[in-house]
Amino acid sequence: MNSRVAAVAALEARIGYAFSDRELLERALTHSSVRRPLARATDNETLEFLGDRVLGLLAAEALLRANSAWREGDLSRRHAALVSGQSCARVARRLNLGPALRLAGGASKQGGRGQGRILGDAMEALMAAVYLDGGLDCARVVFASAWSEAMAEVLGEQPKDGKTALQEWALAQGLPLPVYALVSRLGPAHEPRFIVKAVVAGYAEATGAGASLKSAQTAAAETMLRRERAEP
Length: 232
Prior knowledge:
The chain is mostly helical and 232 residues long. It has helices spanning 3-15, 22-28, 45-66, 72-83, 85-94, 105-109, 116-134, 136-146, 148-155, 162-172, 213-230; strands spanning 179-186, 193-199, 206-210.
């Protein structure tokens, strides 16, 4: 048994699914660098397209099962994190998918088996292949196992940026929304520094600095929150 055949068998064991259609599995693991001219599609590009949709559905299902009370914005942020190319690449690395890939010699020598884009695309294609070979229930089982760490990460409390947190704090006090005003802009054009103040009715203003207007506003909001939450 050559090393790649062993790697494919090990990958099947790690995802907990044995393919009936071996050609489908091979196609999912074949990068476009080995595409044959004038031949019908034998690489994983079209499977990647389908896998993206299969993964999107499974991730949405899993999030709704985890917490059906989340608002659409909360679900959307977590969903985007689960199905992103970076997330797919991390899952592929945890499954050690790289050695199972079919790559042209040049792509392999250039480190293609470790490239995030190639790994992420192959992971999506693999999910499509599981779906086509075994159906949605099998794909759901593979997703639950392969994405377990990613799910645990996104199910944690999503940190809010300073401006959002200050807005929610103000509304909870029955106050108007915070207002931000530019105090000054310092430094040369290629390296500016903005000073911004945050104002909430009835409270002392707070200032913040940053390399952009947005970062300065965020810093001002965080300064006000730290001060008000620290006071008895």
